[in-house]
Amino acid sequence: MPNISDITGYTWVGMDFLNLPFGVTTYNVNFVSNNTNYSSFTLNGVQPQINYNSTQVYEEMNYWSNNAYKTVIFIDGDDIDNVTFISWLEANGTLTPSSSQLSVDLTTLSGWSDVSAGNHTLKVKAKAAGYRDSALSAGVSFTKAASGYSGNISAYDTLSGNGTYTKIKFDAQPISDNDYDSYVNTSGILTGLTAYSNKTKVYVWGSYDSLIDLNNPGSSIIIPTNGIKINNDEVISGGSDYSTSIEVALTGDYTISLVYHFQGGSND
Question: Are residues 173 and 207 in contact, defined by beta-carbon separation less than 8 angstroms?
């Protein structure tokens, strides 16, 4: 009896010289050899020779026609568990389980968007109907780059000046005055988004002294649009027309406050 009962997924490497049985027997198995798919493996002890389908790959006087034919990867077929065939394979070469590599682009998987930016370790568990789950595989490390920043948006009243308004748009320059993502009017009413995610920059415009306040833990950056720099606060010039909007790069998960009642030149 052979040591293996089913050669599905096994690789056979034949010896240089083979002992062919008497007679001619064709085994119906699907396999790959020399980068070609075959569906029959014929042992011909009369000639004597071996054929893969109609291709003669071995002849007793001249041995293998190409050493690449010595390696066979079995897939399936009616005789994939034929005891006589498997016994002959074992006696005339080596049978080992085939190893295969499967490459997967993680970014194409449905859960990729839920994976946070940073370093992660991936482990795989095999599952199949009617079979017990495998143990987790060894871990593979991967890094997901940050695609942008996230945070909340609110209105902020400085109570320090006349009524002003501020508008913002994320990641693309506005094409009209109404092309905004969030807007605070002179009464402090916030319209549009109250949160953002995966953004890299914001465009700001509004009344002459409009500003946004990016509050990062441990710091406060004032960005009014009157072109004056005050102490450690960054001030950028701008105007009331969308075409004069100012681009501000986001470098963290800020809470963005759209300020109203602001007068240029003051601090928060």
Answer: no
Rounded CA separation 168/131 (Å) = 55
Which two three-digit tokens encode residue 219?
């710091």
Return the closest-CA partner of residue 194 out of 138, 255, 118, 108.
Answer: 255
Residue 149's alpha-carbon distances to 196, 200, 214, in angstroms, are 8, 6, 12
Could you read off the pLDDT of 19-38 as tens digits, one per residue? 999 999 999 999 999 999 99
3-state secondary structure at position 239: coil
Query: Closest Cα to residue 202, out of 167, 241, 239?
Result: 167
Place of tokens 């649009």: 225
Residue entry with tokens 């056979």: 12
pLDDT in tens, 63-90: 999 999 999 999 999 999 999 999 999 9
**Terminus-to-terminus CA distance in the chain, angstroms?**
87
Question: Could you check whether the bond before residue 2 is cis, i.e. omega within 30 degrees of 0?
Answer: no
Specify the DSSP class assigned to residue 240: S
Question: Are the C-beta atoms of residues 16 and 63 closer than 8 Å to each other?
Answer: yes
Separation of alpha carbons 191 and 206, rounded Å: 14
86 DSSP assignment? H
**Model pLDDT for residues 106-154, shown as the tens digit of each residue:** 887 878 878 877 788 988 887 877 777 877 877 888 887 767 888 888 8
* Distance in angstroms (rounded) separating the CA atoms of residues 175 and 120: 40
Q: What would the two tokens of residue 80 be? A: 């994939």
Residue 202's pLDDT band (boundaries 50, 70, 90)?
confident
